[in-house]
Amino acid sequence: MNQDETRRGRQKDGTVETGERGQAQWLDKAVAGIRFRPDRAAVRAEPAAHLEDKQADLQRIFPDIPPQEAEVRALEAMGDPEVLGRELANIHRPWLGYLWMASQWALGVALALALVLWGGRGLSELENRRTLEEVNQGKAPYGERVYEYYLAGDPEVPFPQQEGENEVETGITRTPVRWAEETETIRAGLYALAVSRGALWRLAGEGIQEPGTQSPRYVLECELTVTGLPGLPLHPEAAYHISGFDSLGNTYQNTRGGHGTETAYILAMELAGKGLNQRYRLSVWEVPPQAEWFRLEYSWGGVDWTLTVPLKEERI
Amino acid sequence: MSGKRGWSLPRLGRGGKILRNLAISLLLLVLVWAALGAPLPPSLDFHRLELRYLREPSQIVAQVEQDGEIYVVGFGEQEAVLGDLEGGSLSFWSLPEEGTGLMVAGSDRKVNVPTTWLLSMRAPEDAVTARLELELSAWMVKIGPDREEIVLELPKNREGEYWQERWSYSVEGERLLSGEFLFRVDAHDQTPWQEAPGRRVGEQMALAELAWDYLYTQTGSEHNPDFLAQATFYDEQGVCIGEARLSPEETLFCGM
Q: B196 - beta bridge partners?
């Protein structure tokens, strides 16, 4: 091959063009069939590197070979760019490329939305917590301490006092007489329910009397834990359908969130929960101290369950 | 070379990267959906609310819109369940043991409603058309420093100028796919409550209270507002084949 021939490069007439233009044309032809444009540059880099290697090899093996000739031979050794182009087009399917780009966009948009929404929520939650901590001066709210007192049933722990208040002022003596044993966990609908703790309290003093009642009064305070699915907490009004009876045959109707008087009743109230666990305080009034167990009953809207709470004479 | 090789993620091909990106996007979108309050179409939202009330899903029979808010009604075994999707609560009406009943399918959170809906419960199967006649009355008094705020009150609780108003409505029922009939009751006075003196419209207040449970559960013979709704059902030949009534004396509301 003479010098002129090599300079012209291989064209449609069988000649070979050399120099950067010739290489570029060869590479352009090789990747022209790849329809996903962003892939072309990346794919083009590979045969370009091959070409360079081949040319370098030739120059290493034949040190006297002119660069142009090495280039022509390298291009010839690479074969027909159109044949290679067809193979590359088959491998690099455009829909996969577009899908990849779409998945990147989807990820970006979803990440941005999640950051904006959850970031805002997180900041607002932090602010609320900080405000609550300031209001309660780092202590649990008074109401929470009272619930904890009744549910824990620890006779050694004094009743939580508010500032400036003392036991004499309230005039009520509180004594736990039986303790609720942790129950089995039952499933109802989407939820798992169990009574985790509690105590039957004897409350004495004038302050505890209501019309139709006399001191002492007895109240069973127990904690019902409800575990559900994320975003599907049990509706607090569902607990209004919990009624019950004790081992002595006394029945207790639910007051649906309000305090009842005179007759035995059950009061359900939602407490602050944690994570997927919801907590309900069940207050069952006028449970006799002789009751050895208390059975929670639920039968409404096609869902039925019962949960028997053993009441032990010794603290568990 | 140090010889130590740290742990690294496997290199993924393009297909693997697509799957990874889509999986992470899906997870993030679930979080976004949860942050937006996990919205669902009304029927699914209603069933979700039922599940949260620890109830078996009921059979949806109607869906209505009142003031831009969606209410869904489903029938259970013994009660009709009214889902207030915006308020996130359910209320319950007793299904008639026999014959046909009527219930109010509207909000029990609103003071004024320009429109309320009555729904048949177990309408006759052969009914093709239905008509509702509603007679409504209410005692009212104006209170507040400017005597502009209307309250519904029987004339025995306090001094003031009480007056009673009566309204009549005659409404053609819309037959739903479920076979029940929905009656749209529009107040004659459609003044937007925001523009009304004291932000109250007497007639719209009376219509709103039709959905309030206290009206059906209070004891005594005097009700305010008082009303009688009567629906008549006709077959293809126009022959009357059934009737249903709703009034405060017929305590169909279950409360909770």
A: none
Show pLDDT as tens, one digit a residue, over chain B (256 residues): 445 567 777 788 888 889 999 999 999 999 889 888 889 999 999 999 999 999 999 999 999 999 899 999 999 988 999 999 999 999 999 999 999 999 999 998 999 999 999 999 999 999 999 999 999 999 999 888 877 888 999 888 677 889 999 999 999 999 999 999 999 999 999 999 989 888 899 999 999 999 998 888 776 668 899 999 999 999 999 999 999 999 988 766 554 4
> How many Cα atoms within 13 Å fall on the side-chain side of residue B95?
19
A264 backbone dihedrals φ, ψ, rounded to 5°: -65, 140
Lowest mean pLDDT among A172-186, A279-293, B4-18, B121-135: B4-18
Separation between Cα atoms, residue B239 and residue B256, nearest integer Å: 38
Q: Are B166 and B137 in contact (CB under 8 A)?
A: yes
Q: How many domains does chain B have?
A: 1
pTM of the model: 0.79
Structural contact between residues A197 and A182, judged by C-beta atoms closer than 8 angstroms: yes
The answer to whether A113 contacts B28, with C-beta atoms less than 8 Å apart, is: yes
Can you tell me the distance from the alpha carbon of B175 to that of B182, in angstroms, rounded to the nearest whole number?
7
Return d(Cα B246, Cα B101) in angstroms, integer: 7
The neighbour count for residue A157, using CB atoms within 10 Å, is 11
Helix, strand, or coil (residue B46): helix
Contact B173, B131 (CB under 8 A): yes
Polymer length in residues for chain B: 256
Mark out chain B residues that contact chain A at CB-CB < 8 A: 14-15, 17-18, 21-22, 24-26, 28-29, 31-32, 34-36, 38, 48-56, 76-77, 88-90, 255-256
Rounded alpha-carbon distances, angstroms, from residue A130 to A115, A124, A138 = 22, 10, 9
Range of the domain at B206: 101-254
Q: Is residue B201 part of a domain?
A: yes
A 222-241 residues inside an 8 A Cβ radius of B: 230-235, 237-238, 240-241
Judge whether B110 lies within some domain.
yes
Task: Tell me, yes or no, whether B181 lies in a domain.
Answer: yes
What backbone phi and psi angles, to 5 degrees, belong to B181? Answer: -115, 135
**Distance between CA atoms of residues A258 and A243, nearest Å:** 14
Cα distance between residue B184 and residue B174, in whole Å:
8
**Which residues in chain A are closer than 8 Å to B256, comparing Cβ atoms?**
237, 240-241, 256
Q: How far apart are CA A269 and CA A252, in angstroms?
A: 16
Q: Confirm whether B96 is domain-assigned.
A: no
Q: Read off φ and ψ for residue B64, nearest 5 degrees.
A: -130, 160
* C-alpha to C-alpha distance for A271 and A260, rounded to whole angstroms: 20
| Closest by Cβ to B21, choosing from A104, A238, A298 | A104
Other C-beta atoms closer than 10 Å to the C-beta of B127 total: 23
Q: Identify which of A223, A180, A171 has the alpha carbon closest to the alpha carbon of residue A200.
A: A180
In chain A, the largest separation of any two C-alpha atoms, in whole Å, equals 123
Q: Tell whether ipTM is more than 0.90.
A: no
Nearest CA-CA partner of A17 in A76, A83, A99, A79: A76
